[in-house]
Write a structure and sequence with these properties.
Blueprint: H1 19-25, E1 29-31, H2 33-37, E2 43-52, H3 56-63, E3 67-70, E4 78-86, H4 91-97, E5 103-111, E6 116-124, E7 129-137, H5 146-155, E8 163-177, E9 183-194, E10 197-201, E11 204-211, H6 219-226, H7 236-244, H8 254-264
Parallel strand pairs: 1-3
Antiparallel strand pairs: 2-7, 2-11, 3-8, 4-5, 4-8, 5-6, 6-7, 8-9, 9-10, 9-11
Helix pairs in contact: 1-3
Length: 269
């Protein structure tokens, strides 16, 4: 299967070459983590879109009156590091590849600038509804704590061993609707690392709209529709595993790879 030509891996942290993006972000009203907690949407519908990185400043410029942007210590773009776990036979990966409707994703996440760490378990239920539980922790150590093991065994009935499989790094912008219950995360500079392999998707931006129920009429959804950006399935874990481990079964991801190739060929949507 032909994959898009990756960029040589960089740091995955906030780039110095984003002055245009920083400029448009300064036009948004700032919100705090406390404001964001008011729309935490732990039980929600997630809808993802892929757009070219070159289109992002224009998209943001069209919605700056309708959303606040998370700001912490004058920063509005935040680097994230995630470590994904799976069973030795990659049960979670294969469940995603095979389209199993009720599946798990388990990861450690570091909010780099805030120096915060969480153990997170996400369960994708039927349709696009996602439930997430997370536990705060002190570091990014891949040795699971007792409470974390209890969570996956008791709450999610997982009795298999799990091990670190993939690391991702990316920069994130987080928006919250001013007049509606909605959060939007915008991920750029996505970098995948596994067993010495590294792949960076520098030409795409992942826009994820999080809502209590699917609403096509919010400002961000309307702008994306005007740009002919349609919802796309894109799991960072599954796609990162497929890109860094070509021997894995990945036929089901052919539409994703064809879509990525269009970005690299200059045909955005």
């Amino acid at each position: 299967m032909t994959h898009p030509t990756p960029t040589l891996a960089g740091s995955g942290l906030v780039s110095d070459n984003n002055s245009g993006l920083q400029s448009v972000l300064r036009t948004f009203l700032p919100i705090t983590l406390r404001d964001l907690d008011a729309v935490s949407l732990q039980n929600r519908v997630d809808t993802k879109f892929l757009i070219p990185s070159s289109a992002l400043p224009d998209v943001l410029g069209r919605i700056q009156q309708d959303y606040g942007v998370l700001e912490i210590g004058k920063n509005r773009i935040f680097p994230y590091v995630s470590c994904y776990f799976d069973t030795p036979d990659l049960q979670f990966y294969h469940h995603h590849h095979n389209g199993r409707p009720n599946r798990l994703k388990i990861r450690l996440r570091q909010y780099v600038l805030s120096d915060l760490f969480y153990f997170e378990v996400k369960q994708k239920r039927f349709s696009t509804r996602t439930e997430k539980i997370r536990l705060k922790r002190e570091d990014l150590s891949t040795k699971l704590k007792r409470a974390e093991e209890a969570l996956i065994q008791d709450t999610f009935s997982l009795n298999h061993e799990i091990h670190p499989q993939l690391t991702t790094r990316f920069d994130r912008i987080t928006l919250a609707g001013s007049q509606h219950e909605e959060r939007v995360t915008i991920d750029t500079g996505l970098l995948f690392l596994r067993n010495g392999a590294s792949v960076q998707l520098s030409e795409i931006v992942i826009v994820e709209v999080k809502q209590p129920r699917n609403n096509l009429h919010t400002p961000i959804r309307q702008v994306l529709r005007q740009l002919s950006a349609s919802p796309k399935s894109f799991s960072k874990y599954a796609i990162g595993m497929a890109l860094t481990t070509p021997t894995l079964r990945q036929n089901a991801f052919k539409p994703v790879f064809l879509n990525l190739k269009r970005f690299y060929d200059g045909r955005a949507f």
